[in-house]
Structure formats: C-alpha cells, structure tokens
Amino acid sequence: MLTMLFVCLLLTGPASACNLGMHEWERALMIDFALPGPIFPAAEINIISDRFSPHDIKTFNWTADSFANLFWVFLTRKLTTESWPTAQAWLFTPSHELDNCCG
C-alpha cells in the first residue's frame, strides 16, 4: 500500500482543492484507511489562503500527538498548487506543548 501511494505521488503534479464543507456531497464509495492524520494539506491551504493574508502569518504550528501523525502533511505540502502558505515555515508542535509555544 505504501509503495502504491509513493508511486502515485511521483506521477502526480500540483493539484488544487476546495473547502469540502461548501458543497453537498453524496457518498458513492467508502474506503476506510486507518491514517493518524491527513496525507495532503490541500483543503487546509485553501482555507488559510481564503481567511488570512501573507503579512498576518509568519509560521504555521501544525499540532498532533506525535510527528508521525503529520509526516505526510510535511512531506506532501509542496505537491499542492503553489501559494503563499506553502512558502511559509511549517513547524511541528506537540499537542501538549501548545500552551507554551503560542500563548
């Protein structure tokens, strides 16, 4: 499965995404992958681009219980459409350290 995902990543180019909450979707097929976090941060990047401007944000603190949960986000962020959020610094911050880093 990991090899197939890696091959797909090598063969694809940048893609754009939309905020899935703005559409009414009907499920055609459901495949359940046990993933601890997102693979592509495409929807998140679009939401950031819509709600903020480049001078508002210098770095992004992505949080999870461990870095392994966000490994694919950090690895695949450059595969999305080039925009200002992908050029910003992305930092991993463990969930239990949020009070110390951003407060």
Low-confidence stretches: none
- Describe the strand arrangement of the main beta sheet, using strand numbers: 1-2
Radius of gyration: 15 Å
Number of helices: 5
Outline the biggest β-sheet.
Answer: 2 strands, parallel
| Count of beta strands | 2
- Broad structural category: alpha+beta
* Mean pLDDT across all amino acids: 78
Oligomer: single chain
Beta-strand content: 5-15%
N-to-C order of helices and strands: HHEHHEH
What gap, in angstroms, lies between the N and C termini?
A: 40 Å
Measured as a percent range, the helix fraction is 25-40%
Question: Which geometry do the CA atoms define?
Answer: globular
List keywords for this structure.
two-stranded parallel ribbon
Molecular structure report:
This protein has a domain at 37-103. The protein is built from 5 helices and 2 strands. The chain has helices at 2-11, 42-51, 71-76, 84-87, 98-102; strands at residues 59-64, 89-94. A two-stranded parallel sheet has the order 1-2. The model has no long low-confidence stretch (mean pLDDT 78).
